[in-house]
């Protein structure tokens, strides 16, 4: 790994250490019953775990990272399907989802088969799932049921797989590994969520979309988004982008994509009558609550990077 990768990891660990100390001091001052402080400490503890797991996978190499994202996709998919009503006739479509679509997508990624990777789910799985459902001969809510399953696969598997797909890009003049690029993407998209949360808590007054996501504010979006874009500019050394302003623009795209992802999947949750996708990550909700911004920003970032910074 290049030196900039290790410097960034050490910097992240340092920030988490500061956050842990601050959380401990706030807990001592205000007591363990303060909901906001307790939630903050839970989030910091979860971040420690996530940083250790992600950094470990990146250090172990591309295949370990792909497997990690495949596992994350499985849990995100399970959360989506759990909140979505299904019928006995959906058995075979769900078999195809879990045993063909999900492993097939990440297997193609591991093989570096870019052509099939990009069309496997949008083309072949798109036709296979409703065909399997039609053969079950249950027309009750047929369109709605299939639309939900298709949505689950597109968001939780296809879109998410574009994050580790950054590892397959052949970028001239870049490091021998694309792990720093993936680290850059994850840091920008996740820090945007954190910064928006903090700015919203400190200064948020004007609700952005109260019926969809009551906690989101204009102050949180603008303040947190701006901080994440600045971070993206500072992390320019992790990227293959030739100028710092290109890294800044890419960070802006990531922030916008991540925000839209969080807002859209919040709307989906509300339509299903749920506050969170699950309870897997203490302080964060479910796996999909943590991945929603990645799912929407990863494909955009991947294709922009591929189009502008890889050979034609």
Characterise this structure:
The radius of gyration is 20 Å and the shape is globular. A two-stranded antiparallel ribbon has the order 1-2. Helix 3 (62-83) runs antiparallel to helix 6 (142-159) and helix 6 (142-159) packs across helix 10. The chain folds into three domains: 1-60; 63-168; 176-311, no CATH class. The chain contains ten helices and two strands; from the N terminus they run H-H-H-H-H-H-H-E-E-H-H-H. The two termini are 27 Å apart. The model has no long low-confidence stretch (mean pLDDT 91). It is mainly α and 312 residues long. It is 74% helix and 3% strand. Pfam families: CTP_transf_1. This is Phosphatidate cytidylyltransferase. The chain crosses the membrane at residues 6-26, 47-76, 96-129, 149-169, 181-199, 220-238, 244-265.
* Helical content class: over 70%
Q: Give the helix/strand class.
A: mainly alpha
Give the spatial strand order of the biggest sheet. 1-2
- What percent of residues are in strands? under 5%
Rg from C-alpha positions?
20 Å
**C-alpha termini separation:** 27 Å
Q: How many structural domains are formed by the residues?
A: 3
Count the beta strands. Answer: 2
Unreliable spans are none
The pLDDT mean sits at: 91
Number of helices: 10
Overall form: globular
The major pleated sheet works out as: 2 strands, antiparallel
Helix-strand string = HHHHHHHEEHHH
Which features characterize this protein?
mainly alpha, transferase, 10 helices, two-stranded antiparallel sheet, membrane, transmembrane, nucleotidyltransferase activity, 312 residues
